[in-house]
Amino acid sequence: MAKDAAAELRRFALDLPGAYEDFPWGDRVAKVGKKIFAFLGAAEEAGERDEREERGVGLGVKLRESHEEALGMDFTTPSGYGLGRHGWVNCSFPPGAAVPVELLCDWIDESYRLIAAKRLVAELDRRANS
Questions:
Q1: pLDDT at position 46, please?
Q2: CA of 13: how far to CAs of 24, 49, 68, 79, 106, in Å?
Q3: Which of 8, 24, 70, 83 is the most buried (most CB within 10 A)?
Q4: Does residue 97 come out as left (phi exceeding 0), alpha (psi in the -120 to 50 range) or beta?
Q5: CB of 76 within 8 A of CB of 90?
Q6: Element holding 115 (H helix, E strand)
């Protein structure tokens, strides 16, 4: 269940114009240009975990419009390392927890729009309108 949610969030983020995956500091992130717009959890080496072992879902995004609302939810905290004061929010779900994938995809979209170049945001808007 959580594994599917994590995969769906990753797929959504990487489908955005110009988005790609990177692994700085052992974290799986989605970037556009050279900037991170979503932290997608710890990267794992192939075979590092037993396939039957379920892990929770984590996500970090930069929010402006949804920031206050997001911090009012019980699964969020301001991001560490000083990022929280710049609008970054961490979401954490233990194994087996219900993950609001649609809401989190909206937040990934919002974070992307704050980070991406205007031409890429315009491309995203063209996609949505076609």
A1: 40
A2: 17, 24, 22, 19, 10
A3: 70
A4: beta
A5: yes
A6: helix 101-115
* C-alpha pair distances (Å), 99 with each of 15, 36, 46, 65, 95: 20, 22, 24, 21, 10
Tokens matching residue 90: 């961490």
Paired strand residues for 19: 32
Predicted confidence (pLDDT) per residue in 70-118, tens digit:
999 999 999 888 787 889 999 999 988 999 999 999 999 999 999 999 9
- Residues written for the chain: 130
d(Cα 60, Cα 31) in Å, to the nearest integer?
12
Lookup: tokens for 19: 């988005």
What 3-state DSSP class applies to 93? strand
Whole-structure pTM over 0.85, yes or no? yes
Give the number of other CB atoms < 10 A from CB of residue 25. 8
